[in-house]
Design brief:
Helix content: over 70%
Distance between the termini: 27 Å
Radius of gyration: 20 Å
Structural class: mainly alpha
Number of helices: 4
Strand content: under 5%
Order of helices and strands: HHHH
Number of strands: 0
């Protein structure tokens, strides 16, 4: 057994704990913001009794744009406060992993918002969103493990 084995493992554990504290500190404001936007959008959708796929898609497209823009500005502000590079190689890798699924989901959302409503298709639209969102999250998780 390597005599430095315990020291190396302790250093690995320390690094992981520091990273988790950093990620928690960085992601908490972003998740609170995105969650608040989601709750507000759900309340608006519920109070307006949206039963048409077109309006449903438009409402959630606007909510997604607001949430993504807000998350971007929060992360950018945090990077500047900490004197860190915002567009780092890990950030770039995650953005590249997310972009195909999120772009396809955006394209379908714009398409479904632009076409006339067909009643009963709102559930199909939601399934497509879930599919592409799941693919994007999977890709982001896979690209994070590549570090």
């Amino acid at each position: 057994m390597n005599p430095n084995w315990a020291e190396e493992n302790l250093q690995t554990i320390r690094t992981l704990m520091e990273r988790s504290a950093l990620y928690r500190r960085a992601l908490a404001p972003i998740m609170l913001f995105a969650g608040t936007i989601g709750i507000i959008t759900a309340i608006v959708g519920r109070l307006s009794y949206m039963d048409r796929g077109r309006y449903f898609c438009a409402l959630w497209l606007v909510a997604a744009i607001i949430a993504i823009a807000g998350a971007f500005f929060i992360a950018r502000r945090q990077a500047f406060k900490a004197n860190e590079v915002f567009w780092s190689p890990p950030t770039r890798r995650v953005a590249q992993a997310l972009s195909p699924s999120l772009s396809t989901g955006l394209f379908l959302t714009v398409l479904l918002t632009a076409v006339p409503d067909n009643e009963g298709n709102i559930h199909r639209d939601q399934l497509l969103w879930i599919l592409f969102y799941g693919c994007a999250i999977h890709a982001a998780g896979f690209s994070c493990r590549a570090e």
